[in-house]
TrEMBL record:
SUPFAM superfamilies: Cytochrome c oxidase subunit III-like. One of its GO terms (molecular function) is cytochrome-c oxidase activity. Heterooctamer of two A chains, two B chains, two C chains and two D chains. This is Cytochrome bo(3) ubiquinol oxidase subunit 3.
Length: 211
C-alpha cells in the first residue's frame, strides 16, 4: 500500500511554508515474490544434497546398507504425520480466509503437533542408527543420508518455530493483512517441505531397501 508523507523544505532561502509530497511505494505482492526466490534457492540446496546422495548412496564401505537399516513402517508413519500436517495447514488457511481466527489457530496448533511428531520420530531414527554404530562417519552412504534427511529436519524445525511465532502474532493482532501474508508465506514453505520429503521417502528409503 502506498504511503504519502508531507515534509517541509529545508533548502536555504526556500519558503518555510512550502511543502512537498513523497510517495513511498511497496510493490504489490513483493513479499510473495521475494519468498518464491528464497524457495528457489532452497531448491538448489536440496538438489545438491540429492545429487550427493545419488553419488554416495551405494558406498557402504563394508558397513550396513539401507535395506539393513531402514524401518519402512516407521518411516511411512512419519510420512503420514507430515502429509497430514499439510492438510491441516490448508484448513487453517481456509478458516483465515473466512475470518475465523479461533478456528485458524486451532488448525495451526494441530499442524504444529503433527510437525513435532514428525521431528520426534526422525530424532528417534537418528539416535537408533547412531546407537547401532551407523553414524554419519561410518560410510559415504550414511554421510549423505544424514546430510539430506537432517537438512530437511532442520527446515521442519525452523518451520515449527515460525508457526509458533505466527500463532502469537495472530493471537495479539488478529487476521490483519500482514498476518495473512505471513500465513501464505509459511504455507508455501510448509508445502515445499512436503514435496521435498516425498522425494526423500521415494529416493532414499524406498529405493534404499532395493537389493
Amino acid at each position: 500500500m502506498s504511503d504519502i508523507k508531507v515534509s517541509n523544505s529545508g533548502a536555504l532561502g526556500a519558503d518555510p511554508s512550502a511543502r512537498f509530497f513523497v510517495r513511498e511505494h511497496h510493490p504489490e505482492n513483493g513479499t510473495l515474490l521475494g519468498f518464491w526466490i528464497y524457495l528457489m534457492s532452497d531448491c538448489l540446496i536440496f538438489a545438491c544434497l540429492f545429487a550427493t546422495y545419488a553419488v554416495l548412496g551405494r558406498n557402504y564401505a563394508g558397513g550396513p546398507s539401507g535395506a539393513e537399516l531402514f524401518d519402512l513402517p516407521l518411516v511411512a508413519l512419519n510420512t503420514a504425520f507430515l502429509l497430514l500436517s499439510s492438510i491441516t495447514y490448508g484448513f487453517a488457511m481456509l478458516e483465515s480466509q473466512r475470518k475465523r481466527l479461533r478456528a485458524a489457530l486451532v488448525w495451526l496448533g494441530i499442524t504444529g503437533l503433527f510437525g513435532a511428531a514428525f521431528l520426534s520420530l526422525e530424532m528417534y531414527e537418528f539416535f537408533h542408527l547412531i546407537h547401532e554404530g551407523a553414524g554419519p562417519q561410518r560410510s559415504g552412504f550414511l554421510t549423505a543420508f544424514f546430510a539430506l534427511v537432517g537438512t530437511h529436519g532442520l527446515h521442519v524445525t525452523f518451520g515449527i518455530v515460525w508457526l509458533v511465532t505466527l500463532m502469537f502474532q495472530l493471537g495479539r493482532h488478529g487476521l490483519t493483512v500482514e498476518n495473512q501474508r505471513r500465513m501464505m508465506c509459511l504455507s508455501m514453505f510448509w508445502h515445499f517441505l512436503d514435496v521435498i520429503w516425498i522425494g526423500v521417502f521415494t529416493f532414499v528409503y524406498l529405493m534404499g531397501v532395493l537389493p
